Each structure stands twice: as C-alpha cells, then as structure tokens.
Amino acid sequence: MQQITSRNPFVRAVAAARRNLPDTEALAKRLGPGLITGAADDDPSGIATYSQAGSQFRFGLVWTLLLTTPLMIGIQMLSARIGWVTGEGLAANIAKLCPRWLTLVLVGLLVVANTINIAADIGAMAEATRLLVGGPSALLVIGFGALCIAGQLLFSYERSVRILKWLTLALLSYFAVLLVAHVPYGQAAAESLQPQHWRGPEASLSDYASMVVAVLGTTISPYLFFWQAAQEVEDQHRRPDAAARRAEPAYTQEHLLRIKQDTWFGMIFSNVVALAIVLATAVTLNMHGITSIQTSAQAAQALRPIAGDFAFALFAMGIVGTGLLAVPVLAGSAAYAVSEVFGWKAGLSRGFHEARGFYAIILAATGIGTLMSVFEVDPIKALVWSAIVNGVISVPIMVVMMWIGQSTRLMGALTISRRHRVFGWGATVLMGVAVVVMFATA
Predict the structure, then answer these.
(1) Is residue 15 part of a domain?
(2) Is position 255 within any domain?
(3) CATH number at residue 408
(4) Residue 202: how many CB atoms within 10 A of its CB?
(5) How many domains is the chain partitioned into structurally?
C-alpha cells in the first residue's frame, strides 16, 4: 500500500513541499528578543494610536507603516548587535561615549516615559476586561499590576521568555478582526499613495501631522532599543563560552544571522499587525462615521455594533494579551538601563536576592504605573506626555547608537555595514524630523 501511495504524483509533490519547508522548531528557537520586541511595540497604547489613525484618516496613514518598517528593522538590528558584540546593554555603552550627567538624564527620562506608558497599558487592559466580563475598574487595575509584577519575580528567565513568546499570539486576533471586515484593498492602496484623500470634514493639516508623528513615535520607541540589546546580553550569559567564541568567524556569522532573522521577523510582524489594526478600524469605524477614538478600549467598544460581538471580543482580548506582553518589557527595559548606569547586577536570569536593585526598578515602575491607573490619570494626557518624553530622548539615543555601531573601539571588527548605516541614520533623521514637527504643531 505504501508503494502505491508513493507513486501518486500528488502525494510525492506534497512530500517534497514538506521537506522544503523550514524547520518550525528550529525557527522558533531562533526567534526571541526580536519577536518579543516587535510584539511589545503593539501594546495597548500603540493599538490606540493605530485605531485613531484608521478611524480618523481611514487609509491615509498606511504609508507611514510601510516607510518605517525597514528603518525600524535597521535600528533594532543595531541595538541587538551592540548587545551581542559588546556583551553589555545599551545604557552601559552610552555611558562610555557620553558625559555621565547626559546618560543619567536620558535614562531618567526613559524611566519616566516607560512608567507613564505602563499606567496607560494597565488602564487599557482593565477597561478591556471590564467591557468583556464586567467588574470594578480599580480592582482590575490592581489585579493586572500584581500579575505583571508576579510574572517577573516568580518565573525563571527561560520560562519568562517562553511565556512572552506565547503572548505574541494575542496579536493574531487583529488579523481575525480584519477577516470579519470587508476591506476595499484597491481603495486602501489608492488613498495611501495619494495623501490628499485623507482630509475629512473635521480634519486639519495639523491633525494629520500630529498623527504622523504619533505613528512614528509609537513604531520607533527608545524602550525597544534597551530591551532588545539587554536580551541579547541575557541570552549570551546563558552560554558561558559565547564571549570566547566570538573570535570564531563561523560562530559569529551564525549568531549575526540569527539576530538578523529574529529582528526582521519581529519587526515585520509588528508592522503588519499595526497595518491590520489601521485597516480594520478604517473600514469598521471611519466608513461608518466614527472618527474620534481616543483609547484602545473605545476602539473595541465601537466595533461591537458594526462588526459584531465576535470582532469586539477578539479586539478586546488582543488588548489584554498585548498589555501582558508589553508591561514586562517596559518595566524591564527601564530596570536594565538604570542597573547598567549604576553598575548593579541585572537580569531576569538572576534571582531577586542577587539583583535587588534591578527588581526594585521593575517593582517601582509597575507599582507607580498601577497607582496612576487606580487614580484614573487621564490616559490621553499620559500618552501625550509619554510621546513627548520619548521624542525628546529618542534622537540623541539613536545618534549615540550609530556612533557605537561605527566605533571600532567598542565593536572591534564587527562594526555595522554601509547599508546598515544608511538605514540607521535614515531612522534617526526621520525621528528628528518627527520631533520637530511634534513641537511645531503642539
């Protein structure tokens, strides 16, 4: 029977195709810091920004996601490369090139921005849960804050990474929402390429410019740089021979290829999800006259009467899942940065008693963010201030990152290539223009 089956050309073709597919288990092992970083970029505050872009300007901002994808890949690959090549996090490397006062200011502003962002994300998770199952908002906020803290304190590094990888699946809910809605892709492509179509009866050029800046700031954020670099350092610490083997060309080439594949996959996945959110809200909200969405929970609630309970539930569950992924990344990136500047032991692979200062920052950032949500700090104002702080610090951090990437003193023979420099400096210039526009239109 087996012989008869094997003669079947269709069966042989299927077998050949299966042999040519990439090993999913091997691919899963290669994906880590880049995938988690990309997924964390689509946190509840990011979902709110993309929902607002779709509901207010329909398809008029699709081009921003296409533009930022290669630039985002370039700058995140740089941060990962710095962490792996130097064996130190981004803050430690910045401290080697910048005056200490400037390093402290940048890291301090990062902590402030991350804490504000944590508050907005925890508040969004609580509100989405309340819409799904009910319950008092304050209790839900405290519950999510406690859950995020417990996850980072109680789980090992390996388990934490495994959980964060699984949480990236929450983003698939936005593809499902997109399948429920009918998207006129021809119209979407035409409007994204012809910006004059964005202008609605209540929209102004200033509104459009502000939203462009918001999308750019949401896509390219400083906390992502610090997190991915730190995770490469963590991953290296789990391999005692990694530092010594960096001198082996084959080993180095293999790991730089892993970083490249991981980052490309994570950033493209991140921006495709963002695109799905923009398209879904454009066709379900904007085309039905709903053009004012301020939070991710409002976007989920607005979907219900138009796209149905299923789409609403998927959107809301996605908010909760991405929030549980993003809050540890926000708190962790702040903790890594502070610990590196002050020379503290740091890392999720270390226990609480071994890295008290590191975990104290995680507790403080998550705890203060939770309290801000309990006292119902205006989420829109919180996100505005977070965007402003991120805008202020992103450009100098990116400039220093480019210097580090080109420094033979810090990177040795593994400095970034000419093409990588083009994308890195391109992202830096773009963020600089975005910051100028942000202040000009404020």
Answers:
(1) no
(2) yes
(3) 1.20.1740.10
(4) 9
(5) 1
